[in-house]
Amino acid sequence: MRHIELNNEITQMADGFYQLEKDQEALQEFLKEARENTLPFSNVRERIAYMMEQDYYYNVLQEYSLEEIEEVYATTYEENFQFQSYMAVSKFYKDYALKTNDGKQYLESYEERIAIVSLYLGRGNAEKAKKYAQQMIKQNYQPATPTFLNAGRSRRGEMVSCFLLEMDDSLNSIGFNINTAMQLSKIGGGVNQ
């Protein structure tokens, strides 16, 4: 993986300077690899149909018309978003982009993740979904990590990251709270008592 090698070269001195330009080279190399490993769709209609049929996305067509969905996707595509660093692009694709069940192909770009998150948060209100999409693609607004990761997915974890548990001084309460904390941790939640 050439992008990892390029990223490592950043800290190697050349003529007394760090090679900061290697970050942009690593970024471009990673994007090339990501594009080669992304399942292609010819249009939004095909994407939505596949993602719902394969149980990757919730049934977004129950809340929006196809035309409204296409408008939200167009909102994200029109911005021509560009990742600014290797770490940003690698973090998105490794941790946030939806992948096929076998983990071998990406199913989403950054724009497409924003579109489905916006549609989910819009709850059937196309104008609200477009506003979310505009703010996210311009990086004026970023939902909390669990929301950005899980919104719009049919098989998902929680969309909040912290839970408050109350406990009294009995064995039943202590045991219940320990089990609850373990279950919440399993789905990515943090617990405060």
Describe the structure.
The chain has 193 residues and is mainly α. The chain has 9 helices and 4 strands. It folds into 2 domains: 37-159, no CATH class; 161-193, no CATH class. Helix content is 54%, strand content 5%. The strands form 2 sheets. It has a two-stranded antiparallel ribbon. It is globular. It starts with a helix and ends with a strand. The mean pLDDT is 91.
- Compute the number of strand runs: 4
Low-confidence segments: none
Helix content: 40-55%
Largest sheet: 2 strands, antiparallel
Q: Categorize the overall geometry.
A: globular
What order do the helices and strands follow?
HEEHHHHHHHEHE
Ends: how far apart? 44 Å
Mean pLDDT: 91
Radius of gyration: 20 Å
Summing up helix and strand content along with how strands pair, one would put the structural category as: mainly alpha
How many individual helices?
9
Order of neighbouring strands in the sheet with most strands: 1-2
Beta content comes to: 5-15%
